[in-house]
Amino acid sequence: MLLYISSNENIGIFDFLADEQGMIIKKFNGSFQLKQFVIHDMRSLTHYAFLAIDLTALRDIEDEIIEAIMAFKSMYTSRVIFYVDKVEGNEQLIGQLMEQGIYNIVVSDHVEIQKEKIRKATGSLGMSKRDTLNLLNQEDSSLNNFRPDYRFLQKEVKVALTGVMSRVGTTTMAFNLCHFLSGLGAKACYVEANGSHHLAKIIEGAQNTITKGDTTIHNGICFMDLYGESDEEFDFIIYDMGVVESKVVGAIKNKCDVGILCGTAKPYEQDAYIKVNQLFDGIQVYRIFSFVHEAEHRKVTEEYGEGYFSDYTPSLFDSEKNSDMWMQILNIFIVRNTGIGRIYE
Question: Which domain of life is it from (predicted)?
Fold first, then answer.
């Protein structure tokens, strides 16, 4: 279901979705204060997958709009879509919306282009940060610096994570890596390439998921098992390969661009780690040690060799922790643009 807060002039913009997709659309048209509407007027918005907002329908000043969006995101998981009639004069607000993670911003006067953008915004993955910046850049050629913060040098980069043993944080690291990449504007896909069947339970407990064929979309990231298929083209595919075994080593060597070995450097892991190191002889893998106190870093490095020490991340959906580590590991695939990114300063 889609809830549309609309001006009288733009009331029919989303109607084609009902014809094409059978989407149920509920409309409120007129003039509104978004903060009042979100916090006080609507008792519950939990059953709406999308909240679409026509900017011309709002009486709020820019700061109030941002406050309303922050309040909405703290209470609900619906995807927010803004319809903006033009870029000129709205640069600062658009930048602030994107700072809040609102990338589904539709800007176009051409009907067919407008429809295509709405289809993307309501699609399984939604609009990424890069999509939105690129689209806005096309709308106004004067915004020469209005570009994504990052660009990605290769499509379908395959990154495999595997653990010395079970329960060493491999799945958490794989999830975190997906969210880190998505936060940069990359299209990321998580593949459960092991027999744990944890993914189904994780997704079952997540809110605001969209199922599409063999895949589940959550927070703009595609999740699937090893036998799933998707028509989407991704920048990065993250394989959670479970505990190391010979076929995992072979897959990393022959089919993947990056291999990452996860461990905790606990004493009971040492024998397993020695065996795993032998399996990876001659194969480049990055080593990540989790749950290691800072005072133990030097000792672990002396005993196990060079590696990265991850910060503690209890949340599977964390995109911020260990960002420097991820950037160092994937730096050959990611380039930061110069003269970038934010259209307001």
Answer: Bacteria
